[in-house]
Specification:
- The chain is an alpha/beta fold.
- The chain has two domains: 93 residues, Rossmann fold; 101 residues, no CATH class.
- The strands form two sheets. It has a five-stranded mixed beta sheet, with helices on one face. It has a four-stranded parallel beta sheet with strand order 2-1-3-4, covered by helices on one side.
- Strand 8 and strand 9 form a beta hairpin.
- It is globular.
Amino acid sequence: MNITMVDLMKIVTTPMCEEILKMVGIENYLINKNPDIEEADFAVVLSETETKIDSLKLKLNTFTQIHESAFNLGKILNLDHFDENFQEKLSRNLSKISPWANPKQKKILRKKNRNIRVKVYSQFLKDIIEDMGYITVEKNPDFVIFPDYMEDHFKNNLDSMGNIENPKKMENNHDGEIAIKYLKIPSHGDVPTNPLERALMRYNFLEEELCMKL
């Protein structure tokens, strides 16, 4: 049995990034929300995670980012099986999960969204909205998208319209002509730790709710 560099390394990852290690075939690793505790050689963490260990920081909001993260991890660790065939297999597997992970289908889907104007709060949501082909704007949106941790801010704005638990409410914009729909999106608290499942949930929700202009 050949011993590889990865076999000799002590690798740690967080629950939110574990699936990326599985995708590239890494089997021996530690999982800890606080990677520095493990005194590992290398950490695989989300981009916003602070760590003193040598690390690869990942963005996993979109299917494109997930693919790039797996590719970069395999490249950095110089995995024996990391070659063109592996990359093609990775792309095929992702394409089976969602049409948004298939470049050809994604191109068609994006065209349907190019006239829908969205105001977005939070970078992770902006990544997804732009990946889906919606137009991000600051003024006169058709939709306002915000993460659940900003709910209190929007509750103050939407109280007069009723139930905030699922704030898909209507109000007029500054011109008094266009109705605006507010949508709350789960961030890290109420979502799967698996980034593929997390992306699929968010894409499906947004595709359904932003399917047409109001």
